[in-house]
Every structure is written in structure tokens, then in C-alpha cells.
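User: Please fill in residues for this 457-position structure.
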């Protein structure tokens, strides 16, 4: 039977016009933005692939739910709807809503981490690690080596290296490890999944040592999709069943609703332990808001509750990840260098192979993101030496990889937008030999990739 398309399980009811720009207009906008895609105005962007965070399109049911927001200060009905959805689909007993993922990370880190503690994790995420460090902890990477190798085709590059975990437990002592922090999927590894077998093994190992396990479940539904596709014994299970099993190997999770859950803002901390819940419920009042709204409007809680039910549907996830794979597969077929396997939320272009003529300090990935914008108005993100920043001695971190991330918002762009993206990447690829690099002319102290400015060499 011929292969069938991943076509979207929805039709479009409302449209948001995009401004089409000329190359001359983009050249001007790019110079004004210092060749940094973060500094572009979104009005000057045609297809925005900067991030999939908070950029999803909500459904008619979610928008209808917004009208049913109960904006009572305490005990909003939308809180109870969200609580019921979290209990049903994630399986945790207690819920503390937060304004987004980092709000939940703040609560968990503050409650569980003491100065001098060690927090092992399968590669870091920026805000997660920052909160662990702020609470006095030290993050230790326990992901398998394949995660750092763009040419490895390992199907579960998010897996934990159990040997590394055992070594850190032996070295630091279980008492110094408040919890192990497991992301599913691993954003910084390119949206790569962790397998159920590996997660189960991590749970068994940590349990023997009396160490808790907390999930970063921000992308756990995308992870469930990969388990269903790739892991023996899961092909006939529903995503909801796989999600429940995933969560059952943990004591709780932090969650950014801005990813899997199809909302523009929102997050939560969910867990089973009553004492930790009690403390989180007390603290959230200080930082976010009362424990039944956590910094969100009642309508936001409702949209997230409905988003949970929609996001765990098979049809939705097939189209979501299918779209990312569509772009990745086409680029691969054109011989354009990308990171493999293709992850859940993004395609990563290998800028070093685009521009072998550029030194790393001529910023190949930054250059590629700029060239792509110039060609078609597509906005992407640098993940290379600019994002990596400098070390304690003021030297540039020199990451092995110079990548440009094309990140796909959920339910937002059409297949024709995908085709334009493929064509534009191809055009830049064909002109790659004529491209000159960039010089950094302004460098901020912290997280420089957001605000650094460049000029053409
Ligand atoms: C986005 C993200 C976070 C942080 O969530 P925010 O809602 O942006 O605060 C944490 N972990 C992962 C894996 C993420 O992708």
C-alpha cells in the first residue's frame, strides 16, 4: 500500500495574516536586529520557527473553555477541572498550578535542594539547571554519550547511563542527592526520547538507594509517541497508557504547559508526597499566587485542562511529530546536513557543514540563521558558540556543534509553509560557498545569545 500522509486532524476556522516582506526589507530589519534573530520584530517574520514554547494554536474547545473561566480568587472550578485531568492522565495525586514550567522548578528546587547537594539529570535544561544551582545544588549530567554525538542513530538518545548514575551515587552519597531529574523528551539533546525500559531501570536503581525521581514532563507526551513507535511491547498501547506508565516511575513532575499542552501560558507541579505538596502549597502563595490559581487566570487553567485531553490523542501527535519529520526527511533527501534521528519538536541544521570556510569565531550557526531569514523571512535559532557563552575564565565555551534549530509550533503552520521552509534551506545550501561570517560587536554578560549584536565580515 502506498504511504499515507500525516495530514492534520483539524481544519482552520480562523486565520492570522502574515506580512510578506521583500529581500530589501529583510536586509534592513536584519541589520537593525544586529544579525540576531531574537532581536527581530515578529511583524518582520514570515514563518516563525524560533521556538515551540507558548506558540501553539488553541482549539475551538480550548477557546470556548476560556469563556468558562471562573475568576474567583479561591477554589475556581477550573482548578478542579485541571486537577482531575492531571490525576487522570499523569496519575499524580496532588497539583500546584504555576505560571509556567520554571515556576514549578522554582518550588521543587527550593523545597528539596540544600546547599552542597547534587542533582543528576539526563542533560540539563537551561531554567531547570539554573533553579537547581540557585538552590545550592550542583547539576551532574548522566545522559548516555550518544546524546552528544550528532551522527549517532541511537533510537533513545535521552537514556540515562546507569553506570554514570551509580558512580555519582557512590561518590556523593545518596543523602546528598535530593532527587534525580529526568527529562522526557530531552530538549537540549534535540527532542530525543528516553525509553521506558531505561526509565524503569533508573527508578529501580534510585529506589534501592532511597532517592526520589522527578520528571520534567514538559514533553512527556511526545516521548510517549516515540516509545510507541520504537520500543518493543508498546505498539498497541495508547499514548495515554504510555504516559501513565512513564509517570508511575516518578514521585512527581514539573511541567510547562506551553509545550505539550497546547496553551500560550501555564504550567504545574504535580506529585504524590503529601508533605512536599503541603510545602509547595505554602510557598506558591509567595511566588505565584494562591494554590488554586498559581499565577494563572481561571480561563488559563481551563485551556490547559482541555489541552491535556487533546494533546494525548494519537491523531494529534502523529501530525505534530509527522510535520517535523516531513521537513527533516525532505532536507535529508536533498543531502542537507541535519542532526539524526529527527527529534520531536525541531529539525537541527548542521551549520559547520554549511560553512566549512568559517572559523567557529565567525559564528557559522548565527550566520546560517541570518542567511535563512534573509532568504525567506523564516526565523530560526542559533545553538552554537553564541548560545554556549563563556566559562569562568572568560574564555568562549567551544561546543562541538554549531546548530540552527527550526522549531515547529503545534497546529500553526501548513504543509505549504513546510515546503517554503525546505526550499529556503535548500537555497541557502546552494549558495553556501559565497557566504561570509559575522563579527560580534556587542556582547551582554548573561545569556548572550538573546541580545548579542553582530555585523557582516
Ligand atoms: C520550556 C521547558 C522548560 C521551562 O518551561 P517554561 O514554561 O519556559 O518556564 C523546562 N523543561 C523543558 C524540557 C522545556 O522544554
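Assistant: Residues filled in for all 457 positions:
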Amino acid at each position: 500500500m502506498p504511504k499515507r500522509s500525516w495530514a492534520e486532524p483539524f481544519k482552520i476556522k480562523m486565520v492570522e495574516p502574515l506580512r510578506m516582506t521583500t529581500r530589501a526589507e529583510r536586509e534592513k530589519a536584519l541589520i537593525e536586529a544586529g544579525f540576531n534573530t531574537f532581536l527581530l520584530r515578529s511583524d518582520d517574520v514570515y514563518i516563525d520557527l524560533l521556538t515551540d514554547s507558548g506558540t501553539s494554536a488553541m482549539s475551538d474547545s480550548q477557546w470556548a473553555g476560556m469563556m468558562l473561566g471562573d475568576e474567583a480568587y479561591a477554589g475556581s472550578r477550573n482548578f478542579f477541572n485541571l486537577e482531575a485531568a492531571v490525576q487522570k492522565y499523569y496519575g499524580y495525586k496532588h497539583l500546584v498550578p504555576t505560571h509556567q514550567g520554571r515556576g514549578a522548578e522554582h518550588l521543587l528546587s527550593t523545597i528539596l535542594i540544600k546547599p552542597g547537594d547534587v542533582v543528576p539529570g539526563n542533560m540539563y535544561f537551561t531554567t531547570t539547571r539554573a533553579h537547581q544551582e540557585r538552590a545550592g545544588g550542583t547539576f551532574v549530567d548522566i545522559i548516555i554519550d550518544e546524546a552528544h554525538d550528532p551522527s549517532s542513530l541511537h533510537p533513545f538518545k535521552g537514556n540515562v547511563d546507569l553506570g554514570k548514575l551509580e558512580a555519582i551515587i557512590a561518590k556523593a552519597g545518596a543523602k546528598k542527592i535530593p532527587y534525580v531529574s529526568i527529562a522526557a523528551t530531552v530538549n537540549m539533546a534535540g527532542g530525543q526520547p528516553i525509553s521506558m525500559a531505561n526509565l524503569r531501570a533508573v527508578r529501580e536503581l534510585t529506589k534501592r538507594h532511597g532517592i526520589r525521581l522527578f520528571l520534567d514532563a514538559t514533553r512527556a507526551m511526545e516521548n510517549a509517541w516515540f516509545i510507541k513507535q520504537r520500543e518493543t511491547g508498546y505498539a498497541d498501547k495508547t499514548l495515554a497508557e504510555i504516559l501513565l506508565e512513564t509517570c508511575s516511575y516518578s514521585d512527581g513532575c514539573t511541567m510547562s504547559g506551553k509545550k505539550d499542552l497546547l496553551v500560550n501560558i501555564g504550567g504545574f507541579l504535580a506529585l504524590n508526597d503529601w508533605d512536599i505538596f503541603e510545602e509547595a502549597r505554602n510557598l506558591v502563595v509567595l511566588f505565584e499566587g494562591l494554590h488554586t490559581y498559581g499565577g494563572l487566570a481561571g480561563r488559563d487553567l481551563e485551556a490547559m485542562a482541555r489541552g491535556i485531553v487533546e494533546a494525548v490523542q494519537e491523531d494529534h501527535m502523529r501530525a505534530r511529530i509527522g510535520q517535523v519529520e516531513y521537513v527533516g526527511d525532505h532536507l535529508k533527501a536533498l543531502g542537507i546536513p541535519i542532526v539524526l534521528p529527527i527529534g520531536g519538536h525541531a529539525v537541527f541544521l548542521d551549520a559547520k557543514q554549511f560553512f566549512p570556510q568559517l572559523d567557529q569565531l565567525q559564528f557559522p550557526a548565527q550566520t546560517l540563521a541570518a542567511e535563512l531569514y534573509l532568504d525567506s523571512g523564516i526565523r530560526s535559532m542559533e545553538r552554537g558558540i553564541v548560545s554556549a557563552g563563556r566559562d569562568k575564565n572568560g574564555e568562549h565555551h567551544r561546543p562541538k556543534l554549531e546548530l540552527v534549530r527550526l522549531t515547529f509550533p503545534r497546529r500553526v503552520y501548513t504543509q505549504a509553509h513546510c515546503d517554503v521552509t525546505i526550499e529556503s534551506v535548500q537555497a541557502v545550501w546552494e549558495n553556501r560557498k559565497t557566504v561570509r561570517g559575522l563579527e560580534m560587536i556587542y556582547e551582554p554578560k548573561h545569556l548572550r545569545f538573546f541580545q548579542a549584536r553582530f555585523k557582516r565580515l
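For context: The pocket of pyridoxal-5'-phosphate is lined by residues 53, 100-102, 125, 127-128, 183, 187, 216, 218-219, 256, 258-259, 267 (CB under 6 Å).
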